[in-house]
Amino acid sequence: MDYLLFGIFLAACLGAGATGAMFPTGKWYERLKKPGWTPPNWMFPVMWTSIYLLIAFAGARVAGLEGSQYAMAFWAAQIAFNALWTPVFFGLRRLKGSLPVMACLWLAVLGATVTHFQLDFWAGLAFVPYMIWVTIAAALNFTIARLNPHEKPLRPAEIEV
Question: CB-hemisphere CA count at 13 Å for 43?
Answer without folding.
Answer: 7
